[in-house]
What we know:
- The chain is of the alpha/beta class.
- It is 29% helix and 16% strand.
- The strands form 4 sheets. The protein has an 8-stranded parallel β-barrel with strand order 3-4-5-10-11-12-13-14. A two-stranded antiparallel sheet has the order 1-2.
Amino acid sequence: MAKRSDENPARSKLFEPYRLGALELPNRIIMAPLTRNRAALGNVPTSLAAKYYAQRASAGLIVSEATQVALEGQGYEATPGIHSPAQIEGWRDVTRAVHAGGGRIFLQLWHVGRVSHVSLQPGGRLPVAPSAIRANTKTFIGGEFIETSPPRALGLDEIPGIVAAFRRGAANAIAAGFDGVEVHGANGYLLDQFLRDGANRREDGYGGSIVNRSRLLVEVLAEVIREVGAERVGVRLSPVTPSNDISDSNPSELFFHLIGRIDVLAPVYIHLVEGATGGDRNFGAPFDYGLLRRYFSGTYIANNGYDLATATDAVTRGRADLMAFGKAFLANPDLVGRLRTGAPLNAPDKSTFYGGGAKGYIDYPSLEPACV
């Protein structure tokens, strides 16, 4: 993250409170979801996870790492789930710790679809997808990245089960003490796969036209909202990212249609990855995020490659309401305080991003309390 402007950082609109549904956020800085591959046997969050998230409770809102809604939804080793009693209890320890630190936290609901491997699937079965098209990408197993397995196409009769899994995941998240949930419709995972004509070659009611390809995400979002209430539900999208070998022939037409459908359901926010996830913000240009933002009546969270100056500018101009930061939060548990005071940021240790224990997870230094 680059050096900020010469102005007093504390004057940035990012540090003003914001009302998000029933939540009063103390600032507009969001911790983006970050996969860390540190769940225990049974994909259960650990006490280290409780400490990790509690350390970052000064964020306006934390969005948890992506969390699978069913065993079949897992694509990487040691990622947490929200479909078993043990997982719910593990997450309950996390939410208690965050709330004790004065924080607020949503859980990100996830199904990876084809971005998986047979070794992670029940009975060694093939991963599922809208169509039997393998993703030219990798997953993380045995401490290394390996090629994904070829998937099979979901049967039409199986799709209601996907919707139900997201609904149960949302109910379980609220039971675990989360303030809300974020439906993961981004980065080339299952709901995004259904959206894109590069991954979806179906000829039934879930394929072909933009209306049909949008159907599963809209159904999932509607069912999750029915379960826990619109003010507790957000959705993450990534209109032009190439992540996990995802593509579409006309992303502008697709996402302007989709945002209109989403707006009718009135989730509390949309969370947009602008550009290539974790990469070039200008990837896929021209894409008018400002216009897209105006199509949605609720809160707009912008993400990808912002620093304090550019984030402040976007919020001040009304192009975004809240700003999500990813890797900066990974290495800086007290990111809000550092940005407010103009303090230098810790550099992230990439070798500890995925898997491992406390190192590179809960041992990044914070500022002295007097400096915050």
